[in-house]
């Protein structure tokens, strides 16, 4: 009954209140996300038809812009002309006006906004009774939408065309009804296929975010069964851009979950190549291109394709300075996160931990600058990588500090990350000789990983080794490290154990103990041998 009483209009006041309750303050976030040019444009936009109320929202805008953090009491103190009961409505009005000014400013930068603007014009002309003029715009729109592979938008265009032809005798084209019907059926079928592929890609990615990699053959069978049950027939015969993009993404996540890194590489390369074959789509789907480059770099890292990794990273850095990457805050932030994640991985591959630490102040500065916009999972991943840089550089105390940021944060991140943050944290205390808490940590971390069902044979052997090491003096530990190394090296090629080696290069750590060298020296030596062979 309640639903029947709701007005079928967009209630901005209700939406704004709901958003404000959910986040710290959405208006504050929006204002502080604006660039100088956007702030200047807003003031020009609002002053064109200034009223007493509009002048008040400019005062509100200026006051909120100067706040370092949202404080309503301080805000009201600065705005003596605004009473507390007025504030909520003024904030809602300011939020709407900011979005309106941004829409005008950003229309030329976004294909979606351009298409919707033209469709709005066609609807206005139709409502004015100018049917033929409306149809002319719609014809041009269809050509534009097809060029950019915007099938979902074509549905709206054809829907308006059908409405005009159904309600009015336009005589605009012979056999128009048949053509519109054929177009609608073709697009509907294509959209159904795209929806199937995009759903599959999203579900697989969601599975990975929640569970991490498949831990054993049973989990792999479950993923394989799910994948092929939901894969549309004739999947590999797709010709459209979006069908192929979501198909490649689906295979990419499927391979990554199964830790089939060769398949993962092949499909991430296909994903990126798709954009290079149709470069116009980099402008349209910039986010998907950035994500593809990120995954291609991860694939080269997993396979230790050193040369290809360097080439792809250079290509990605070049792209980060291009117009599509610089056009929106979202893309700038994405490229920053992925490029610096890749640069840290590069130091992991080369064993240049100390050199990698030189980037940390800049990364921290950017994380602070982008704090409103980067999700906590991404931050946790970066903190883990920085913690590993310090671990590799034998600064175990600082490594522990970074790992605490993950362990003590209830962020909804991949369980694998939480497990390995605890594992490396335990190892850092082992390296520091904090044996008074190691026994507790071993039990605690083991219980946590067992509860999360994240224990592989590598972790089981590691816990066995650490428990034994308590009874042995440090001078007599080398033979034990030799035995431990022989044990874990047997699993180096085991697909279900590669997850452990990806999060922590345990073999290089043990080799450093066996050979009496730094972990960084061991990895550097492996890197030089591999590149020399290549």
Account of the 3D structure:
The chain is mostly helical. Among the domains are: 12-109; 112-173, no CATH class; 406-534, no CATH class. It is 77% helix and 0% strand. The chain is built from 29 helices and no strands. It has helices spanning 12-22, 26-33, 36-47, 52-66, 72-78, 84-106, 111-127, 131-147, 151-167, 176-211, 217-230, 241-257, 261-277, 280-284, 286-303, 306-320, 323-326, 329-350, 353-357, 360-369, 376-392, 396-407, 415-431, 435-451, 457-469, 478-489, 498-503, 506-515, 519-533. Helix 15 (286-303) packs antiparallel against helix 16 (306-320) and helix 26 (478-489) packs antiparallel against helix 28 (506-515). The relative contact order is 0.05. The model is unreliable at 1-9 and 14-23 (pLDDT under 50).
Distance between the first and last residues' Cα: 72 Å
Mind telling me the C-alpha Rg? 28 Å
Number of E strands? 0
Poorly predicted regions are 1-9, 14-23
Major sheet description: none
Overall mean pLDDT score? Answer: 88
Share of residues in helices: over 70%
Please report which band the strand proportion falls in: under 5%, 5-15%, 15-25%, 25-35%, 35-45% or over 45%. under 5%
| Structural classification | mainly alpha
Shape: globular
Number of H/I helices: 29
């Amino acid at each position: 009954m309640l639903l029947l009483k709701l007005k079928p209009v967009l209630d901005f006041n209700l939406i704004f209140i709901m958003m404000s309750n959910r986040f710290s303050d959405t208006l504050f976030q929006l204002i502080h996300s604006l660039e100088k040019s956007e702030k200047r444009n807003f003031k020009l936009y609002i002053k064109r038809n200034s009223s007493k109320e509009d002048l008040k929202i400019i005062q509100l805008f200026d006051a909120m812009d100067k706040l370092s953090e949202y404080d309503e009491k301080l805000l009201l103190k600065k705005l003596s002309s605004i009473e507390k009961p007025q504030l909520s409505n003024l904030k809602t009005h300011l939020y709407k006006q900011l979005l309106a000014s941004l829409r005008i400013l950003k229309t030329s930068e976004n294909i979606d906004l351009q298409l919707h603007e033209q469709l709005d014009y066609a609807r206005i002309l139709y409502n004015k009774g100018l049917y033929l003029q409306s149809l002319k715009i719609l014809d041009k729109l269809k050509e534009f939408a097809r060029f950019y592979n915007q099938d979902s938008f074509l549905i709206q265009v054809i829907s308006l065309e059908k409405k005009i032809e159904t309600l009015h005798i336009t005589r605009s084209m012979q056999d128009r009804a048949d053509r519109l019907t054929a177009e609608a059926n073709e697009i509907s079928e294509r959209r159904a296929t795209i929806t199937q592929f995009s759903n599959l890609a999203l579900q697989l990615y969601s599975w990975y975010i929640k569970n991490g990699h498949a831990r054993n053959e049973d989990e792999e069978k479950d993923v394989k069964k799910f994948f092929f049950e939901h894969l549309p027939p004739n999947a590999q015969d797709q010709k459209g851009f979006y069908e192929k993009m979501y198909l490649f993404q689906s295979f990419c996540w499927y391979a990554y979950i199964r830790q089939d890194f060769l398949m993962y590489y092949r499909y991430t390369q296909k994903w990126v190549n798709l954009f290079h074959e149709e470069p116009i789509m980099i402008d349209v789907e910039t986010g998907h291109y950035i994500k593809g480059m990120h995954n291609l770099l991860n694939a080269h890292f997993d396979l230790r394709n050193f040369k290809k990794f360097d080439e792809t990273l250079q290509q990605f850095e070049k792209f980060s300075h291009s117009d599509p990457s610089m056009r929106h805050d979202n893309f700038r932030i994405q490229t920053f996160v992925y490029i610096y994640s890749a640069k840290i991985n590069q130091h992991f591959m080369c064993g240049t931990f100390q050199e990698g630490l030189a980037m940390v102040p800049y990364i921290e500065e950017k994380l602070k600058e982008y704090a409103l916009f980067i999700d906590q999972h991404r931050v946790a991943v970066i903190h883990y990588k920085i913690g590993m840089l310090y671990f590799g550089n034998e600064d175990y105390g600082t490594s522990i500090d970074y790992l605490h940021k993950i362990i003590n944060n209830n962020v909804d991140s991949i369980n694998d990350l939480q497990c390995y943050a605890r594992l490396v944290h335990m190892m850092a205390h082992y390296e520091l000789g904090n044996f008074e808490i190691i026994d507790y940590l071993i039990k605690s971390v083991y219980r946590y990983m067992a509860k999360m069902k994240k224990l592989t044979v590598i972790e089981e052997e590691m816990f066995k080794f650490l428990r034994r090491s308590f009874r042995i003096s440090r001078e007599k530990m080398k033979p034990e490290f030799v035995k431990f190394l022989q044990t874990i090296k047997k699993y180096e090629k085991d697909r279900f154990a590669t997850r452990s080696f990806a999060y922590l290069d345990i073999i290089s750590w043990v080799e450093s103990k066996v050979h009496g060298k730094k972990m960084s020296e061991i990895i550097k030596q492996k890197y030089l041998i591999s590149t020399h062979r290549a």
